[in-house]
Design brief:
single chain; 89 residues; mainly alpha; two-stranded antiparallel ribbon; 2 strands; 63% helix; binds zinc ion
């Protein structure tokens, strides 16, 4: 079962003209090509989505690494401050 490209009424597969409005229907060959193209576009969209997720994850990972570095530096500073504290403090 297919649908008329013009009026949307349902018709048998493989008909050349719509029995409701008379519009010529795309051939099975063309439909198959369009389906293949649509599938390719769908796959590309999934790929792009995945790349976006990967880029986001990379950015988070870099940010987290920077945060840990800053934390380590702060901890070191803190330790050094305690070491240099004059006696009696
Ligand atoms: Zn029609």
């Amino acid at each position: 079962m297919g649908f008329c490209v013009n009026c949307g009424n349902q018709h048998q597969d493989g008909v050349r003209f719509c029995r409701f409005c008379g519009t010529a229907q795309p051939s099975e060959q063309l439909l198959a090509r369009l389906r293949a193209e649509a599938e390719q576009i769908r796959l590309i969209a999934i790929q792009m989505q995945q790349q976006q997720v990967n880029a986001q994850n990379d950015a988070y990972a870099r940010l987290e690494a920077m945060r840990q570095q800053a934390e380590a530096a702060a901890r070191l500073n803190n330790q050094q401050n305690q070491q240099y504290r004059p006696p009696g403090w």
